[in-house]
Amino acid sequence: MLEDPSQLAEPPPEPYLALWRFMIDARFQRQGYGRCTLELIVDHARCKPGIAELLTSCVPGPGSPEAFYRRYGFAPTGETVLRLPL
Q: The whole model's pTM is what?
């Protein structure tokens, strides 16, 4: 599920996309589906004019997807948010 405030009647001055929900069933994790799907999401984000970053969030700890996102290139912002410059 993506949040795209650029679609609002009054978009923010610095548009972004936010990945709100990204779930791969545990039976299919570690098989490349997540990375392949994330690549499609990033490609979609890069095609949108004016979008400079893709944001997502996660809670650190056991079972957290943080390592997955960081391997892809997302960087922490100091909160529970990770940012991928496009």
A: 0.84
